[in-house]
Amino acid sequence: MLTAGPTIKRQHSELRDPLDNVLSSSERTIYGMNLGTEVWVDPTKHNNVYAIADYTTSDGYLWSRLAYKEQLANRNWDGKFTPYLGIEGVAQGNHDVRSTQFGPFIEVVHVPSSLSIMLRGGWKRSTYQVGPEKTGPWFAIGFWRRL
Known about the structure:
mainly beta; 8 strands; 0% helix
């Protein structure tokens, strides 16, 4: 699947000294395009490989994710819940900030409603054009529902 569309971003920037005094600030509106793609493959009936990338021309920001998940139970889909165990990597950033994260996830699908909850976590490293890098654990909860 491919996607494209316009973007409008309102940007506010501040440069501060070590005492947190504002040295300069600016505001501007940036116009551009958003381009994206998604690809998924089911190597078998019980696992999935998923890749997504999204690029915004207005600030040169790229967000991407590659994931693999394995269905652990309910392979005939006659039960109410279907659990998955997976692993993912996310890379994102532009000239101001870059971030990579890697870790496992657990997903449980409620079959009758097509509602899914995903618990994700792992390790993340972020680097910045100005300032020290930050490295440490991360955790997220996601929900989705097939329409």
